[in-house]
Amino acid sequence: MRTVNVVFAGVGGQGVILASDMLCALLLAKDLDVKKSEIRGMSQRGGSVVSEVRFGARVCAPVIPDGEIDYLLSFDRNEGARFRPQVRRADGVFELEPWELGRLPSEKVANVALLVKFLAPFARPPGGGPASPPVDPASPRIDPASPLTVTREEILELVRAAVPPKHVEMNLATASVFLDGP
Amino acid sequence: MLHRAGAGLFLSGNEAVAHALRDAGCRLATGYPGTPSTEILETAGRLGVRADWSINEKVALETAVGACFAGARAAAAMKHVGLNVAADPLMTASYAGVRGGLLIVTCDDPHAWSSQNEQDNRNYAPFAKVPLLEPSDAQESYDMARAAFLLSEEFDTPVLLRMTTRVCHSKGRVRLAAPDPPGPEPEFVPDFDRFLMMPPQARSRHRFIEERAVLLAERAAVTPFNRLEPGAGDGRGDRLIVTSGVSYAYVREVAPDAPVLKLGMTWPLPETLLREAAAPYASVICVEELDPFLEDRLRALGLPVVPTPRSFRCGEYTPRRVRALLETLAEPATVEPAAAEWADAPKGGRPSAAGLPAAPAAPAPPALCSGCPHMTILGVLRDAGATVSGDIGCYTLGALKPFSTIDTVLEMGASIPIAMGMRRVLPAARRRRVVAIIGDSTFAHSGITGLADAVYNGDKGLIFLLDNGATAMTGRQGHPGTGKSLEGAQRGPGIDWVKLAEALGVDRTVVLDPYDREACDAAVRRLLDGDDPRDPDERRHPDDPDGAGGTDPDQLTLVVLKRECALLVPPQPIRYRVTEACTRCGACLKVGCPSISFHDEIGRPVIDPASCTGCGICPAVCDDRAIVPFDIRETRRPGAKPAAAAGPGVRG
Fold this sequence. Notes:
The complex is a heterodimer of chains A (182) and B (652). Helix content of chain A is 33%, strand content 19%. Chain A has a 5-stranded mixed β-sheet with strand order 2-3-1-4-5, sandwiched between helices. A two-stranded parallel ribbon of chain A has the order 6-7. The longest helix of chain A is centred in the N-terminal third of the chain and has 13 residues. Chain A is globular and about 40 Å long. With 652 residues, chain B is of the alpha/beta class. The longest helix of chain B is centred in the first third of the chain and has 24 residues. At the A-B interface, α1, β2 and α2 of A face β1, α8, β9, α11 and α14 of B.
């Protein structure tokens, strides 16, 4: 299994690091080798925050070699744009559309919303069964055998465990919208 | 968020070191916050180790040495430039040796992600003659920090653990080892020959540490941290790669089958091991970030080292740069040195991705926060045309637009001496516009001595102390001015800066509220220009009842701008918005607040109501009175209209 590379790109205060921590928690539970690296020295001041997550059988470097990004989660249009040229496939870029952002109950849940939007295509329907096939059957992006394959319950549990207690309800409701549709 | 990761934990290098401190029974950990080192102490404190922020790194190391002399295991952690501050105790602590194990962690910052330089602190190991360990990932950070205490006690020496930003902040699985049994109860037993470093003792101990280095080199030859990983035998046996730190991970990424000598203990180097490892190979290639630390030493041993181009000494390595380095060194004859010399050297930002289309955007720059009290003085000094000697902290951003206020920044605490150095040589007419600004934590760290020196040498002029009650840049830690400990407990009363300045003999102190732009403006004008057009009665200021300020600029004045960091205060319900009275003069945009931006469609500046803190700095600069307050609670009532003219947020 080759190493899979995911970039989370945003700015300070968006919860970028929490979102990448959540993905790591999911992968670690599957007993994969996971490495995560981030630059956040300036994040206190609203500067760029980039978190790189790599997983596979054995991961060496903590940073992603140029041009080898499999998935880009863009939390900020400008920050995401910096990494687009390095994404292997155009359909590997995930971001919230303006209408999706507009429907969120608060800006605070945008990080969880984008992570769940990214994971949703890998989610098996309730009761087991195979993950839903990609919209374009020719697209190999969503591989049912991918280590990212999760159950809906796993995603909700991930949210429950990661966010502060007082925001759990709001985040779970947001996650459900991205898993089940509005 | 510490994850359980099957067997072991998912930890950053910094968190792994903190776990090692706990498991090694370290009784005291000290340091001063600084990226990328900060989380070591913060995590150690959470894990129950006594962890204290010190006033600066020199005091941190001296305190740790005290604990070590008293028989306890102790550690001091700091960023690379912090070790410069602590270099004085480091050099002689090496002579004195240890009683409890002493670990010194230096977190270097290749690429200077959050630092003023890219210095390679491995050079401190041979300089101070202390053993050097270089972890390449989080697991090794844990293992080496644990081993460092044993090494320290066995060889009677402090041990230097050298991390880099990528090791500090990269997470991986870490298996913890069984904790050490608790050491003996600390007790200070005097040792005249070691703990009193006077000339005869120093001469005697110098001989000891030279002999110690020989013994340490023998250990370096057998430690599992130094290991030869033979290649896959695919005919690439003509060259051996010698590497250390995170560079090892990059080598394995791009050359998984190459023969590698992986060094974890890099000073003193084991000569015999190096010679034996290199013997079967035609050449040796060193892959190491920053200085040619290994390369120079291997060459001195007479090994056939291929020289690394100088461009590779700058900046951080990436898998791409290591691949480029290996390719360059594979066929050195084909490379025109002059042409290729700097082709791969990083410039700004992240090293560019060769062969890929250029990314259309630059990384988001850091900015001051909404409601930051620093905005006022940075704007006032800009408008006053002052020459500003700055220091290290959030306010260093005052060097950038829209301020361009700060003219010099060197290192922690330099602001006052640099301003006074300028003043001592500049002609009188130019001298009076030279001022210093320094934050409260930096003032405590190493600014106080500069102020005392100014008093001593009869310097005059203006010093602005930006007192926001926090070490804000690194995450709002406490410091001696706040009296708050690492855990946030009120451990002492906090130093009163005004009383301190008066005790030192500063001519005059003035306390201002930086949210009061008019008062700050008037005070700076009065103190800097002495040309206040108002009559003397009107000119009198509550803090300056004799009105002498405007006519006597030749005083040493400390202006304390006192207002808590905006991130420590909950936002107020009263916010501001821009009305149609706006004449688009742009004055509010020059305030430097990230909540204010020009909205193309509305045709005037807008204030993001969500991030506005209601500080009131921007209405004070609006001559049109177009910036007016409103109550955000009213806009949130059901059926209420959204904040007028709010428009989308800054980052839409």
